[in-house]
Amino acid sequence: MSKKEGFKLLYKIGKIDLEIKDLKEKKKIYPKEIEELQKRLNELNALLESLNSELAKLENEREETLKKIENTEENLKKAEEKVSKITTNDEYDLVFTEIDNYRTMKKTLNNHLKKLNEKIENKLKEKEELEKEIEEEKAKVLPQIEEKQKSLDEIEVLIEKKKEEREKLLEELKETEIEFARIYESTYKQKKDGIVIGFISEGSNHCSNCFTVLPIQHLYNVHKGNEILFCEGCGVILVSEKFKE
Ligand SMILES: [Zn+2]
Prior knowledge:
Structural class: mainly alpha
Bound molecules: zinc ion
Shape: rod-shaped
Radius of gyration: 41 Å
Largest sheet: 3 strands, mixed
């Protein structure tokens, strides 16, 4: 009688193992999906970062240009002050060449400043648009990420719950049929995917885990449930669906 109870417990444990395996598969999907959702946002943030550094460069250049203009204006003023003190023709030529040079320089610098201001203005517009796009992307994507994170947490909790359930059943199995529990545990250690039990439905001729077709005598003995039998294909413990309560 206790063997029948033992197989019933193995049946339950095997189903829980399958559930845990499914949950673990699901768990793997979420981090990838979250990463995928974050991708566009990361790209936009990287764009913003490079735009900010371009802006900083341009603003730096503007500061320098303004300083140069200021210096040129001072020099021009000094040169112009010399005009009233000119006494010779040579001096006249020299001073006016200097004045001309500074005026040309000032004009060139002012043109450069104008272009810089235009560039800065355009970049600022670009930045404003980008920031808007980032906000929109965040509004779209962050709730989705949060939801997936929540599902992920829920799965973790569920897995823990299933594991506890299995522990309880295993304890029960130890009391009912210690040998079954021992075999289950030693098989569990050998299995990397956590699947220790395969199921045989009545009328079916193969292992539910690896689909290996099993000899009729073997199937008959599995349904009879007098002893623990293994799948010849994948090595799982075979349990008849008859032991489903
Ligand atoms: Zn198998």
